[in-house]
From TrEMBL:
Pfam families: BppU_N. This is BppU family phage baseplate upper protein. Residues 14-102 form the BppU N-terminal domain. It comes from the Bacteria.
Length: 105
């Protein structure tokens, strides 16, 4: 994750050092069938450079199709409800390996 000073004319992106903030990254997912998964945990790979990784869980891969993802930084101290929207992206689940219908979650 990187941040940019929007008041500056330069488009310079600076890594967010996750060791120096009380915020933690979380992911919210919305599948093509309308299922919603909130507060999916991310693994911090390189905290100093803001690198995180999401391992797609088995319950998400049951839902074939496009999965919309929203990345947030939320206050981990629970002292406030502060959060910041960081990014939107998507990925596709091509094959769930399941042959029967599944319900919306």
């Amino acid at each position: 994750m990187k941040k940019r000073n929007i008041m500056s004319e330069k488009k310079e992106f600076i890594p967010i050092n996750l060791n120096q903030t009380k915020f933690r990254p979380v992911l919210h997912l919305i599948t093509e069938d309308g299922s919603i998964f909130t507060n999916e945990e991310l693994e911090v790979v390189k905290a100093e450079e803001g690198h995180v990784r999401y391992n797609v869980s088995d319950y998400v891969t049951k839902h074939v199709g496009r999965v919309q993802a929203k990345l947030f930084l939320i206050d981990s101290s629970n002292s406030t409800d502060d959060s910041s929207h960081v990014a939107d992206f998507y990925f596709k689940v091509n094959d769930s390996g399941i042959t029967k219908a599944i319900g919306k979650e």
